[in-house]
Amino acid sequence: MSSVMRLFIGLAALWGRRCGASFFDHWLEHEARPLSLHEDSAFVRRWSSMRPAEEESVSSRRRLGSTEVSASDELIAAATVDGSDVVIANDISMEAEILVEYVSVSISSETGAVYALVGDGSFRLMHVHYSNMTLSRVLLKGGSSDLGGAIRLDDLSNATISEVIITGNDSGETEFSLGAGIAATDGSNVIIVDSVISSNRAHRGGGAGVYVGTEENGYGTVLTLVDTVVKNNSAGFDGGGLYIRGAQNVATCLCQFCVRLRRRRVFVYQRVLYGE
């Protein structure tokens, strides 16, 4: 049986699995129409308030030893410091790309909150290069780049992304534009848990939600999606939701999917499809 057939059998089997009430279950109840940033932020905060939490002061929501940021330049600077635990204190209008390079960092909203990082559509929001990153409880919107509008991971980077909404990003106007939401390439290992990847657009390219492939160094890229919604993404080419390029990527994804994909949103490209 081919890798492609095993992939689709695996997806079909997982389609019927009932996962516990989670971030993406609440989103499915909520997402009947396009939302403004204000409405998106209001939703994620309502969702946060539904989770059990003890009464706590503002100061207790800021982890000991963490770096609190409330502006674009502060966040960009903090993300360059190896070992930093960056806590976002409010919604931020981003003024430039966050470059996470040759470091290990953690970036999240303060405990009990989900804040938005919003671009103006003229640059990518985040580039993770030769780094390890943990990203949690944020909304990423308004990013744009030919490869990874919201997030690009490359060159053996590792990322764990949890309780994150990636929506309203694009991957440019060229025919090679890929991964409006996330592009993971060149040996990266990305784990996405309890998140939503929705309403992103690759105008003339593919993989509007997530693109996984090998671009330069030849290393296989690993994608793990768990309890995650990929929906309402659109692509001018193939894979509105998910575009997996390369046989190695198909094999690694096969056993690790617990993802809900709506309609025909998966495109798998590998050489065996063309008889090579």
TrEMBL record:
Start and end residues of each Right handed beta helix domain: 129-247
Gene3D superfamilies for the chain: Single-stranded right-handed beta-helix, Pectin lyase-like
Transmembrane segments: none
Protein name (database record): Right handed beta helix domain-containing protein
Key word Flavoprotein present: no
InterPro entries linked: Beta_helix, Pectin_lyas_fold, Pectin_lyase_fold/virulence
Signal peptide range in chain numbering: 1-20
Record's keyword terms, sorted: Signal
